[in-house]
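Re: [ENG-882] Designed sequences occasionally contain unexpected residues at chain ends

Forwarding the minimal case from QA. Structure tokens:
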């Protein structure tokens, strides 16, 4: 999906897409730098949009590993289905279904979740369910990476991950973004 089509779709669905522009390669790199791709068996991605970060994950993913994405926007979902890679599973379900979807594909848990969900645009009760589900499906010492355009969810993520949250910033993105790195005890 090109940038013009991304912009058109984002304008129609700004509440769920959360942005008018796809993520930059700089943001993707910062978001993924904490992943040990040599040992990752399963990576889960929430809100992949048009697949910019998805493609970066697939470039680094080992041949026997799996990436499961969760995308509820039908246009973005169909664009993701066009990525031909046997390691990619595209789910057209909400991220709150993460536990049941990974189990359907033979996994009990994951070490890494990468999220581009616009948490501030999602109703708080739904966000809480998504974050609870994400936390539950992470292995001990697993990581949840989230980017946002504000610090609105910093306190909530610190509470969810017992203070194990570090904050990064990527200015080379439109708009600039904060990257939360959260680790489960």
């Amino acid at each position: 999906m090109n940038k013009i089509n991304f912009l058109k779709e984002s304008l129609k669905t700004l509440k769920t897409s959360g942005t008018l522009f796809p993520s930059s390669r700089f943001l993707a790199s910062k978001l993924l730098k904490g992943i040990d791709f040599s040992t990752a068996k399963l990576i889960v991605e929430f809100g992949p949009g048009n697949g910019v970060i998805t493609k970066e994950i697939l470039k680094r993913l080992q041949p026997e590993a799996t990436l499961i994405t969760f995308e509820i926007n039908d246009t973005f979902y169909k664009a993701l289905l066009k990525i031909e890679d046997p390691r990619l599973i595209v789910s057209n379900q909400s991220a709150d279904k993460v536990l049941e979807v990974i189990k359907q594909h033979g996994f009990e848990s994951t070490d890494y979740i990468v999220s581009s969900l616009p948490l501030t645009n999602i109703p708080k009760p739904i966000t809480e369910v998504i974050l609870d589900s994400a936390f539950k499906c992470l292995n001990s010492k697993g990581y949840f990476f989230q980017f946002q355009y504000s610090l609105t969810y910093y306190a909530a993520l610190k509470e969810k991950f017992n203070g194990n949250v570090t904050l990064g910033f990527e200015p080379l993105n439109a708009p600039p973004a904060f990257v939360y790195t959260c680790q489960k005890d």
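QA comment: On inspection the terminal residues look reasonable. The helical segments are 3-12, 14-17, 25-32, 52-60, 74-81, 98-104, 124-137, 154-160. Proposing we downgrade this to a documentation issue.
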